[in-house]
Amino acid sequence: MTNSVLLVGVGGQGTILASKLLTTGLMESGYDVKMSEIHGMSQRGGSVSSQVRYGKKVDSPVIEHGGADILVSFEKMEALRWMDYLKKGGKAVVNDYSIESMPIKNGSCVYPEGINEELEKVADAKIFNAAKMAEALGNPKVMNIILLGALVNNMGITDVDWEKVISENVKPQFVDINLEAFKIGMEM
């Protein structure tokens, strides 16, 4: 059986790093893993997505509409944008955080209201503000690792040495704060 995780966010949020850490951990757990990423206009604050598929044998990294077991969203409007990729009854881990796009900033659109309620209608959604938690740790950039910890906890993949995975894949000066962020996410 193949499992599928879709991670989505906005450029600069660390979506790709979280995906790579997840992929590394899954491989260390003995799974065959395939990962695909789409950067789009990520350097300009555009949408970023990463598809991670794992199991005994995985043929393709691509997740079809309605094929994701879990959706992880680093920004709540992105969760809504990608929700049709989630399986019926799938799980969602969502950062209750908003980033205004250019059309919203220039006043030609309005950031939609009621996103969290809409997400809860269609998914088993765990919604929390990882950005606020990261700020409380003293580094807003570790929001992605808090979300990774929540994802790993939700997936039940605790047999992996995540401390080793993180330590080997982030810059040495940021290892401690990332490990702390991961632990906070695991408690979600």
Automatic annotation (TrEMBL):
GO MF term set: oxidoreductase activity, acting on the aldehyde or oxo group of donors
SUPFAM superfamilies linked: Pyruvate-ferredoxin oxidoreductase, PFOR, domain III
Positions of the Pyruvate/ketoisovalerate oxidoreductase catalytic domain: 11-187
Pfam family, one: POR
Keywords: Oxidoreductase, Pyruvate
Domain of life: Bacteria
Nuclease found in the keyword field: no
Gene3D superfamilies attached to this UniProt entry: Pyruvate-ferredoxin oxidoreductase, PFOR, domain III
Keyword Oxidoreductase carried by entry: yes
This protein's name: Indolepyruvate ferredoxin oxidoreductase beta subunit
Organism of origin: Dethiosulfatibacter aminovorans DSM 17477
